[in-house]
Amino acid sequence: MNIESPIDEELKRKREASSVSELDSNMSATPNVEKQKKKKSKQKQSDNNRGEMANTFEDNRDVITQMKKIILRLDKLDEKFNTFNKKLENVLVKGGWSLQEAIKERLMEIKEDLLKSVIKSVEILEGRLFENEQEVEKLKVQTKTLDSELTNQKDKMTRYFRN
């Protein structure tokens, strides 16, 4: 038998009432917290989206520059193919030329281009060699003058000590 005093009952009611009001306050506070959390997550997402957009923009810019380079290279190749095609047409139209002669002519042109670059490199190296030889000659003259000065100084010293 559990007999409760009127004071105990009143305390019990107050506890129940306070726990109900706490639940109500928790229920009303929870949506506000959830809204704030949603706002923060949306802000983070928008910040991430901005960063991704900046990266995407830079990537797109890089892709555009690479595409421009590729287009330039393709244009150059197109020009070369057109010139080669014209030469082949000339071979077919003239009839006097054979395909073998056209290929030989083209290979000779390529050979001449390569020789030009090699000759240029050789000329540059010869120029450097010539400059180095001139510097060596200057140093030889300088060493001869220094040697003569040294012998003069030695002679002066030996005369000085003899006297």
UniProtKB/TrEMBL annotation:
Coiled-coil residue spans: 122-156
Biased composition (Polar residues): 18-33
Region (Disordered): 1-58
Keywords, ordered alphabetically: Coiled coil
UniProt protein name: Uncharacterized protein
